[in-house]
Design a protein that fits this description.
The protein is an alpha/beta fold. The chain has one domain. The chain contains ten helices and seven strands. The strands form two sheets. The chain has a five-stranded mixed beta sheet with strand order 3-4-5-6-7, sandwiched between helices. A two-stranded antiparallel sheet has the order 1-2. β1 and β2 form a beta hairpin. α9 runs antiparallel to α10. The radius of gyration is 19 Å and the shape is globular. The two termini are 17 Å apart. The relative contact order is 0.12.
Length: 288
């Protein structure tokens, strides 16, 4: 079974086991992979500030139409997976616990103060639309790292749509590449077409690095690639591509690392099941 199909089947089975009758991508039409309302697809209601963040994003994630559900109603939505993992810790005021579980800092460190979803960091005034970063931890002003950023990937990494390459316009602005020559070489190799990477979307990660570097400086942020692993060839290739990208970032002294959702959820399960039983039961049942 293809990785994408495996993830879809797992999520539709979860919905069926919980009595959620899914609808199609066009309401009564289309493949039935969407919850009839967003509340059925998330662990808990969105905080007002989180809802506002998604409304201000560019992905049209939570607003649907009578004949077309919102993107976050999809059971295989990467935004929903990110919300179901991170939102809970924001609501209970324990952001540092999930930051430590992600490998950003040591357990017990209280450097992280809040989480912003769909946060934007412009790369250069030449570009009108800065990319949205899925999850960003905003840290204390006294912290060495001003933010921890997370790019979340779920089923879309294994889809048939492919991913975009880096537009040549980015390479024309010499100033944004001066202190990251290895990433620039990679960027040149995937522009205007990316024929190297099948499952990883390196141009997206590069744009995140450029935006974060402009906002905080090269040494004052960390970036995590949080991805859903699958057994077989597709998962193995995805891991190889992540490793290749990691080597490039390491050569430029960019603080980048990767973690699978399965590793993160297993870590949370081991540390917090007794104290946060409902949350842990939900994420382990649905995503492990």
């Amino acid at each position: 079974m293809r990785a994408h199909d495996y993830i879809i089947n797992k999520q539709t089975s979860w919905a069926a086991n919980n009595g959620i009758k899914l609808i199609g991508s066009k309401g009564p039409k289309g493949v039935k992979n969407y919850s009839p309302e967003l509340s059925l697809n998330i662990f808990e209601p969105l905080l007002p500030e989180v809802r506002d963040s998604f409304l201000q994003g560019d992905g049209n994630e939570i607003l649907g139409a009578p004949d077309k559900p919102a993107k976050m109603q999809a059971v295989h939505s990467s935004s929903v997976l990110g919300v179901n993992i991170f939102h809970y810790w924001q609501r209970i005021g324990k952001v540092s616990e999930i930051a430590a579980a992600c490998g950003f800092c040591n357990q017990g460190n209280d450097v992280s103060k809040k989480i912003i979803f769909e946060d934007k960091y412009p790369i250069d005034p030449a570009f009108s639309f800065p990319p949205n970063i899925d999850v960003v931890f905003h840290n204390k002003s006294t912290s060495k790292y001003k933010c921890f950023a997370v790019e979340c990937k779920f089923s879309e990494a294994y889809g048939t749509m492919g991913h975009g390459s880096l537009k040549p316009a980015y390479l024309k602005i010499e100033s944004i590449w001066r202190d990251i020559p290895n990433l620039k070489n990679l960027a040149e190799s995937i522009s205007p077409e990316d024929n190297q990477f099948r499952f990883l979307h390196p141009s997206q990660l590069i744009k995140h690095i450029l935006g974060l570097k402009r906002a905080f400086g090269k040494s004052s942020f960390r970036l995590l690639y949080l991805w859903y692993d699958v057994l077989g060839k597709e998962g193995a290739i995805h891991q190889e591509e992540i490793d290749a990208f990691s080597r490039v970032t390491q050569a430029d002294n960019i603080k980048f690392h990767a973690l699978t959702y399965q590793e993160l959820i297993s870590k949370l399960n081991k540390r917090y099941r007794q104290e946060h039983e409902a949350y842990i039961s939900y994420i382990t049942e649905r995503y492990l």
